[in-house]
Amino acid sequence: MSHDNCHTHGECCDQQHGSHSCGGTGHHHQHCCEHEHGSFADELLELADEAWMEVLKEKIKKQIEQNSGEHLDALAKLVSDANSERWKQKLCQKGNHDHFKEEIHHFFTKGCDKG
Questions:
Q1: CA–CA distances in Å: residue 87 to residues 13, 75, 76, 90, 91
Q2: Cα–Cα distance measured from residue 46 to residue 10, given in angstroms and rounded to the nearest whole number
Q3: Predicted confidence band of residue 31 (pLDDT cuts 50, 70, 90)
Q4: How many C-beta atoms surround the C-beta of residue 35 within 10 A?
């Protein structure tokens, strides 16, 4: 989102007219700046649309919080509790698996200590 090209005398003019002749002044430079500022204006309008959507999204979130906050809190707790339990089970299973691997290792290395 830069409009510096018209101020750096001529990338736009060079590309469109194949020369360095605009030198920051005259008709070619004016055309270049109009082209760049037109693009910049479009980008600003696009940015405004995005900001508008962000504000709307925040307002929707506030309405949801007001209308369904308690219900969503209960749902969030339910999901959080279930996720916590799931991770406890995963860690327990990993611990059981690690213990099993140690037992297998000891089984196969029992006679190795006697040289």
A1: 62, 18, 16, 5, 6
A2: 26
A3: low
A4: 16
d(CA 48, CA 30): 26
Reported as a single tens digit per residue, the pLDDT across 67-115 is 999 999 999 999 999 999 999 998 888 888 888 888 888 888 887 766 5
Report the candidate in 91, 60, 110, 105 with the shortest Cα–Cα distance to residue 83: 91
Do residues 5 and 16 lie in contact, with contact meaning Cβ atoms separated by under 8 Å? no
Q: Does residue 2 carry a pLDDT above 80?
A: no
Domains of the chain, by residue range, sit at: 4-109
Residue with tokens 């999901």: 79
